[in-house]
Specification:
mainly alpha
């Protein structure tokens, strides 16, 4: 059996079962798709909370470039990279 999950679930699953060899990590599932109202809400919320671009991209299942472009398009200021 194979599982498709995100970063947080992967960490939890690894600590529960001790092995994540049958886990497939998928990003970009929404790449190229139109942004929904919920996607835009989640993007704004994540930026306001100070999440980093890679974290936001993983959560939204989009590329970091898409997240940066949409934030720029909406006039949202991304957290500084350190």
């Amino acid at each position: 059996m194979r599982f498709v999950i995100g970063t947080i679930a992967l960490l939890v699953l690894g600590s529960i079962v001790g092995s994540v060899e049958n886990v497939v990590f998928v990003t970009g599932r929404n790449t190229g798709k139109k942004w929904s109202k919920m996607d835009l809400f989640d993007l704004r919320h994540a930026i306001e909370r100070g999440y980093k671009v890679p974290e936001i991209a993983t959560f939204l299942m989009r590329t970091e470039i898409e997240v940066r472009r949409k934030a720029l398009e909406l006039g949202l200021k991304l957290p500084a990279v350190r």
